[in-house]
Design brief:
Length: about 400
């Protein structure tokens, strides 16, 4: 892509990865692709903020050369060592012999282990500032947002925050900004990003945002390392992060289930009816036909998770496992859970599901089991179960 000037002499040098469909070892689906956003600050000491995923190193250098001879690059800020942002570092450093890396204390040894490059490095911590001419780079360590090495770079003269992964979205588009891209799509992908990556670190996210608020940084633009740049309304994504980090929920339920011959599915639909009748927004996912990353995203602002499975070999159906594994890793806060099951000769699914849901840190508020196909009265019980979960009987 051609560079895009996002502020005077500040350029987006991103790479568009339209076709990537999974991230993080295929635990996160990226159905809309992604971008790897680097930023070039043209100043007395030209500075590159982050690089990109290894296969796109040539593309990044081509974009850089449109604006600057890489030999003149003075600093490369590594806000985060993960390969999607640092993979092109060897190519950039080879082309830029004058460049010095700026990174956090945790990033420095990681870079050496990852790349072995004996590159000059300057380690920075929160509050440090480096003048690059007309502008200043200031740094805010942001450990576990989402790796220990993560940091944000802030440019006060531009009121520009460069927070790497934070506030990003896995969203590839030919547009660059929040004011020229579908707002609903941006927020959907931002929510999915937070739910699948930052959910376990809610207290740290809240603490970091509180710290930034206390610093009274003027923020006119947030330029993350994935997806679109927040130009029109950077406060929108900050407010959303605060809400998600606090575990604020809607009056909303997510039903995730699996079925063999349709009995548990009938229960799922009857429970949904009860929830909706009780005034809740409800979403229903048969997990063998669903994308676990999308379900996790939908669960982020739901206060109730309802999980159902028939029993097979005294256990729940294995197609639920990837979703339950994600839950155990992400440990969503401030949510109730309920279970349901239709079994044949003997039960077992509810017991096993209870163990897995508890492991994810959720409390099982209620459960409902039937045997064989649900009768009309049992389906009515399912509807009442939904109503009860919605607080209506
Ligand atoms: Fe944590 Fe986008 O890398």
């Amino acid at each position: 892509m051609l560079p895009v000037e996002i502020k005077e002499n500040v350029y987006w040098l991103g790479v568009l990865d339209w076709n990537i469909r999974y991230f993080h070892g295929a635990t996160y689906s990226t159905n809309r692709g992604t971008t790897y956003n680097s930023y070039l600050l043209l100043d007395e000491a030209p500075t590159l903020i982050d690089t990109c995923f290894t296969p796109f190193a040539g593309e990044l250098l081509t974009a850089l050369r449109r604006l600057l001879d890489p030999q003149k690059l003075r600093y490369v800020v590594v806000n985060h060592v993960e390969t999607d942002h640092s993979g092109a570092l060897p190519a950039v450093m080879e082309a830029s012999p004058q460049a010095q890396i700026i990174c956090s204390a945790k990033a420095a040894p990681a870079l050496e282990k990852l790349f072995g490059g004996n590159w000059p490095k300057q380690v920075v911590k929160t509050g440090d500032a480096i003048s690059i001419g007309r502008r200043t780079l200031t740094f805010i360590e942001a450990p576990m947002l989402h790796w220990p090495d993560s940091m944000f770079t802030y440019v006060p003269e531009e009121k520009l925050l460069l927070p790497n992964d934070a506030f990003g979205q896995h969203l590839c588009s030919s547009t660059r900004f929040d004011d020229d891209t579908d707002a609903a799509v941006i927020m959907q992908e931002a929510q999915k990003y937070y739910a699948n990556i930052l959910l376990p670190f809610g207290p740290l996210v809240l603490k970091k945002i509180t710290e930034i608020v206390k610093m009274k940084l003027a923020i006119e633009m947030i330029a993350p390392s994935h997806g679109i740049i927040w130009r029109k309304d950077p406060g929108k994504i900050i407010d959303a992060y605060v809400s998600w980090a606090k575990g604020e929920n809607k009056n909303k339920a997510v039903i995730a289930y699996e079925t063999i011959w349709g009995s548990t599915e009938k229960m799922a639909h009857a429970i949904l009816e009860g929830l909706v009748q009780g005034g809740m927004e409800a979403r229903l996912y048969k997990m063998s036909a669903s994308d676990a990353s999308e379900v996790i995203a939908d669960l982020l602002d739901a206060e109730l998770l309802v999980v159902g499975s028939p029993t097979m070999n005294r256990d729940f159906l294995p197609k639920l496992s990837p979703f339950l594994d994600d839950l155990a890793a992400l440990k969503p806060r401030n949510k109730r859970a309920a279970l349901f099951s239709s079994s044949g000769w003997s039960g077992g699914a509810v017991t096993e599901l209870t163990g897995r849901i508890t492991k994810a840190g959720l409390t099982v508020a209620d459960s409902l089991e039937i045997f064989w196909a649900p009768s009309a009265s049992e389906l009515e019980n399912c509807r009442q179960f939904g109503l009860r979960l919605a607080g209506r009987n």
